[in-house]
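Table S2 (continued). Query chain:
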Amino acid sequence: MNLCIFELADSMRETIRNGVKVGLTDAKAGRTNELTDDYIET
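Corresponding output:
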């Protein structure tokens, strides 16, 4: 049972780490995907 929890935590950590890498890469590329008020209203 504990092993399953650890594996789940590891996979979640890996997913978060990959998401952060993608976010940093996007920021370096100069993409501005920020949710502005104008974007939300449309």
